[in-house]
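Section 5.1 Outputs to date
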Amino acid sequence: MSEAITLDHQVFRFGFRCAVVVLLTGVIAMFLPLDVPEGYIAEHADRIAWLNANRGEFIGAWVNQIVAMLTLSGVFFCVTWQIRGKNPLRAILAGMTILLSVVAFIIPKFMAVWTIPLLAETAAAGGVGAEMSGTLLMLLNVTIPFSLYTSFDFLGFWLYGVFALLVAGPFFGESLASKVAAGSIGLFGLLYQVAFLVLLAGGIAATEINEYFLGISGLLIISVIALLFEFRRAAVKQF
């Protein structure tokens, strides 16, 4: 086994393991709260009280989201590795896009683990810094789609959409798994950019942003499942 083949095998095995973790974190996320119930319309005081009462669960939920994001980015990096032979330039641009998306995603998610619980604690305790903490909590609302917090998240998904448009064509291969993955990734990228343009044109109300954009992001689940089989096939082929 040559060094190049060994590296290919390691990359595809890494992609397979990342895809497994992404799916596991998705299941775990179903049982952990990311925000107060009815978070879009919840009163600010109710959110503060909920954050303090459910601090551990909230932090655990967002740690799980960090793991999901990092492993999903790992899956996408492996996609760029697989297309490097067909289109090296697109592979480089796609890899750069994923790096930028990690930066966009990690900032708000780290704030959810570190900053938001401390702000909620300070706001509830009163005294020095309480007023400032309450204001910052409004800016870092994790549910309202036009808060500073969610703007970073949607930026990350927009970068995923750019990545998807770059890799969908070159990734479309001979196996059924690669075709399903490329098709779902490409459709995600196309729909996300179209929805973004419709939003800028005023065609999507603020109250509907999460419904539209998170619904489109569901296509990524299909692509991860398909990539699970594709990376497994590719790893075995290189062994």
